[in-house]
Amino acid sequence: MAPPFSSLFAQAFATDADTERALRAGLAGREAKVQRGRLKHALATLTTESSARLVFVDLDGVKDPQAAAREVAAVCALGTVLIAIGSTDTAHVNRALLQEGVADYLVKPLTATTVQDACSLALDDAAERNYAGRLIAFAGSAGCGAATMVNALARGVVSAGRTALVVDLNPLATSLSSLLGTEPAGDLPGLLEGITPGEAVDPDEAEPLDATISPEQLDTVCAPADDGISLVAFPRHGALPEAASPAVVNTLLEHLANRAHTVFVTGALAPEVRAEILNRADARVILYEPTLTSISTAVHSLAVLGTEVPAVLVQCHPRARRSTLSPAQIRFALAGRRPDVVVPFEPALHSATTGAKRARSVHKAYREAIGQLAERVIESPAPAPS
After folding, report:
1. pTM
2. Which residue of 138, 266, 298, 344 lies most exposed, with the fewest beta carbons within 10 A?
3. What is the domain partition of the chain in residue ranges?
């Protein structure tokens, strides 16, 4: 008899390194266990351990995928959602697996987004979307390196031939304008004041887009930046604007996400606005410096999201190579959670920020960390903007 569900959200078994990497990236932020192993290993593990709510099994190398799926289902707890992975892309294999109760069949090569979408579809928790682009939200304490991360990721998007739009919701202070080489345009406070979100018929449905926001109005607040990136931000000077409601901010973001492949959002100061943006985003990045104050802010953001909403946890070192906290102290402060990505101190970026002598180039370790983060949060291939 199959054992009951474990506390894990997902278990995954991969036969190759690329698939294992995609599974880890797609399940980042959730309680998941990803292992390397073929069907025999998966069956042995699921027979002796309680299965998770969701199970990914790599069927590459299996002569009879349909029989294999039947075997896996037999050793899982009743109600387990089974997703198969393989390299054979034929209607016959797909149909045969579905007949055995497999919820989805993913064809290699996988991406993190493929895995995330499969989770949402299989568990019927996909959010309603009124936009075509990908919305990525960032949260962290002041000085944690969020602006630097957004700048690097946005430049990576445009270097791949896609469009990026950066939204900075901090009206007090930001370095994004300098990093992107542009000044905020138009009257963002005035645009926000004029937005009146429509009411949804069903509370579980997404709010309809406000038709009163015209493309011309959006054009006025989108400032062209270096390398084809656009910036939407509050003006540097003038009176401090009144805080917009979460519904108003989300309505603006949905409109902007129809103008670019990827929209990066950071700087939300109001807790209720920040929480709503994080919950509605397609991907979430929680950043912290290895200091108690910064870690505390990150832990609070993770607690607000809860265990069912995945987020990528990033440890940044924007100001110093080393932390005064030991790795054990950091793990304790994070309640045992480990960061998904660690971004090392980068002298070239630190020099640019402080005005000191600039280092020659960005180091390989930093570039690799940015690549790991991009793999986890940026959709590929990107949808075409409307």
Report:
1. 0.67
2. 344
3. 10-122, 134-377
